[in-house]
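Thread title: Can someone regenerate the structure for this chain?

I was given the following input by a collaborator and told the matching structure tokens would be attached. They weren't. Posting the sequence so someone can regenerate them.
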Amino acid sequence: LTLVPCIALLTAACGDDDNQVAAGFEDQTLAANSHYTPDATGMETWTSGKVSFVMYYDQMGGMDVWEGITYSNETDTTTPGFASQFAAITGSGKGNAGIYAVAYTAAWTQAAEATFTDGAMAVKGFWVTNSTYAYHSMKDGDDYAKKFGGEDGTDPDWFMLTVHGLDAQGTSTGTVEFYLADFRSDNAGDDKIVDRWTWVDLSSLGEVHGLRFALSSSDTGEWGMNTPAYFAFDMIEY
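Best answer:
Regenerated them for you:
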């Protein structure tokens, strides 16, 4: 696989020294190698810096069920499957920081959202990588999802994050697309699954009140997307 260290959509730059961090997650507190779970079931809003996030949590049949956005400092980069759903494939936050965000766009929503607490903001971008769960699922396949590229490596598979800019009413005003994995090239050397923090330029969205994140995949079946619907992000900048 060819892994690209920095991808900036629409510009050639990767970050900007003049940017300010709207949410960096180091203002949260966690025990070592853990993730945030609410004390009560239902919808919960939590805030980092100038950004609020929504997480839904419940318990069904003795299992924890969640969707939306949470935060984590888990370091597991090697365990395949559901056990690594809260871990980033980088093993740490951007710049080796401890805490980062994890989004799960569950089958019943296919989206997760962030809202800027001070009103409209000229968002510049954020840093994105795959979850450990999704990375190993795409790299090797699992009981529910295929190995990207197929057995001979020629299947034109892809896993895409779509970021919507939102107005004050929560309506999408524009989108930016970023491939967390891309096997569409005829040249196998171009195939990639993102495994490091990668800058995604959102400046084309202009001033927005929030962001909506949605995932889609070429590996989709009767019940929806088979690729695990997770990604990790850090340092939303404006």
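The two ends are 32 Å apart (CA to CA).
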